[in-house]
DNA sequence: GTCTATAAACGGATAGAC
DNA sequence: GTCTATCCGTTTATAGAC
């Protein structure tokens, strides 16, 4: 389930109806849109509430607090990455094919760019406990990519590159997409995904031509 | 001069002495260290003042305000990039050599990582006027890299890549370094710079082996 | 140049009516 | 479930003494 344990975490919603789930999803999406644009600290609960046609007190009916809202958005983003990239990619045996799939999938995740950008950029605003949880999940993802590079190296397909630095650099480029990609711009999402993974694969693999 | 027009902009310092310049530089560096770690909005003037062994009111003797301080740091960072990367790189005729130089230089700028990270990540916190000025300078840098890729393409040395997307992706990776690089970590600055530009050059250029 | 004190505004969060 | 009203802490910024 894409929402992870956030409804269970917020005790308000243990017995909540389907409508509440939709409302929560709407709150996350709206908040994410504002947060990604202004930054978490610069975003006030008032702004989020207004965007939802609510007052601040009305918004607090659905969430525990501002930090908890951020954490929920990040868990949501991490769930999406797990579901759309990590889980299917783990099933691919051949490391080269697995790498191609992972890069193309992640670079092409245009629908949830906002949430994933927040996941990448706002970790500092989390509480210590929540930050530990998120960083642990991110570490899984990183290790998966790094392990794939190590496998490729063992097969002699990787250029003369340090797998750790290469993996860090891959994440840098792929997560950077969200900072310049504009859904209403000239560059279509397919082209961006294709070009980015081509650039990365060309840099990572020996003789792709 | 590495400080650009910031002392001239702050009318306080029109007739300031050499000591004042040093003090300003110290303020920028101290503020940058805190801002890059906590984020601009989460950093209070009190924290910055304390780190300088000053009170908040004492700090305000040197600067106009918080936003102005941020702008000055960014101008400083942009001056450094101009001086250390852009100006020398422009003198290189051969586009491949120019690209190699630019990537290696930028990726290897370990001394001013903090300031350059702020330049990359805190644009949203600027006033409209200041943001326009900074974005204009960044656009120059971007166009320089993009133009070099176009030249390489005309020489048939570039892979089948869109120069605009490639340039954006280059910046993504290179600016991303600052988010994971730790000066006290295992990975030395030379190795990081060398590995990053190797990965990028391998992805950009045809048959480097 | 640096301080104490304080103004003025804003933010997150909650109480309690409906 | 949504509102009005309010509490309380924090923040930027300044006034004015030394």
Layout of helices and strands:
Two copies of one chain form a homodimer.
Chain A: H1 6-9, H2 18-38, H3 45-51, H4 56-59, H5 66-90, H6 95-107, H7 113-121, H8 128-154, H9 163-180, H10 189-204
Helix pairs in contact in A: 2-5, 2-7, 5-6, 5-7, 5-8, 6-8, 6-10, 7-9, 8-9, 9-10
The first copy, chain A, binds a DNA duplex (18 and 18 nucleotides) through residues 44-46, 54-58, 60-62, 65-66.
> Going by CATH, what is the homologous superfamily of chain A?
Tetracycline Repressor, domain 2
> Would you count the extended β strands of chain A for me?
0
Number of helices of chain A: 10
General shape of chain A: elongated
User: Regarding quaternary structure, how should these chains be classified?
Assistant: homodimer
Task: Indicate the percent of residues in helices of chain A.
Answer: 55-70%
β content of chain A, as a range?
A: under 5%
Number of domains of chain A: 1
Please give the largest β-sheet of chain A: none
> Would you tell me the overall average pLDDT of chain A?
91
* Head-to-tail CA distance between termini of chain A: 41 Å
- CATH architecture tag of chain A: Orthogonal Bundle
Residue stretches of chain A low in confidence (pLDDT < 50, at least 5 long) are 1-16
User: What does the radius of gyration of chain A come to?
Assistant: 19 Å
CATH topology of chain A: Tetracycline Repressor, domain 2
CATH class label of chain A: Mainly Alpha
Order of helices and strands of chain A: HHHHHHHHHH
**SS-based structural class of chain A?**
mainly alpha
Pair with the biggest interface: A-B, 41 and 41 residues
């Amino acid at each position: 389930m894409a929402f992870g344990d956030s409804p269970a975490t917020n005790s308000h919603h243990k017995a909540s109806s389907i409508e509440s789930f939709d409302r929560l999803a709407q709150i996350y999406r709206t908040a994410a849109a504002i947060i990604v644009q202004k930054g978490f600290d610069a975003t006030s609960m008032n702004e989020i509430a207004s965007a939802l046609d609510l007052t601040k007190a009305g918004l607090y009916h659905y969430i525990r607090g501002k930090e908890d809202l951020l954490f929920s958005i990040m868990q949501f983003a991490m769930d999406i990455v797990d579901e759309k990239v990590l889980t299917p990619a783990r099933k691919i045996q051949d490391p080269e094919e697995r790498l191609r799939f992972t890069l193309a999938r992640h670079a092409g995740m245009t629908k949830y760019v906002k949430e994933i950008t927040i996941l990448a950029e706002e970790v500092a605003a989390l509480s210590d406990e929540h930050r530990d949880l998120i960083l642990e999940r991110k570490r899984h993802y990183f290790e998966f990519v790094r392990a794939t590079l190590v496998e490729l190296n063992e097969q002699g397909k990787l250029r003369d590159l340090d797998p750790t630095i290469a993996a860090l650099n891959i994440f840098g480029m792929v997560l950077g997409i969200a900072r310049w990609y504009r859904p209403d711009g000239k560059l279509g999402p397919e082209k961006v995904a294709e070009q980015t993974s081509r650039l990365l694969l060309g840099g990572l693999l020996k003789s792709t031509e």
